[in-house]
Design brief:
Order of helices and strands: HEEEEEEEEE
Largest sheet: 5 strands, mixed
Helix content: under 10%
Number of strands: 9
CATH superfamily: Cupredoxins -  blue copper proteins
Shape: globular
Radius of gyration: 15 Å
Strand content: 35-45%
Number of domains: 1
Structural class: mainly beta
Amino acid sequence: MRVVPDSAIPVIALVFGLTLASPAARADEDVYTLVLKDHRFEPSQVEVPAGRKVRLVIRNLDTTTEEFDSHDLHVEKLIPGGKEGSTSIGPLDAGGYDFIGEFHSETARGRIVAK
């Protein structure tokens, strides 16, 4: 039996296109991934279940640091270029919650919709 070293797991996930949740993600949290590229979030709108705590994973594919910022969600999170960060939000009431990339707010915009 071959054992895969922990350091190889991110490489394996990248090769197979898997999404890794943060180690801090709890089993009772759904995980949603936002990708920041060219100072734009993809997807720009994410639907999440209302009344349930969720984890957002933000991957910054740009070379510069960005701050994920949402007054609606009470979240500020610095994410260095080429890195990822995560944060838990909710449980949220049904509705829309805006977020921006603080350093490129003219293009880095999005919305969480809780249904």
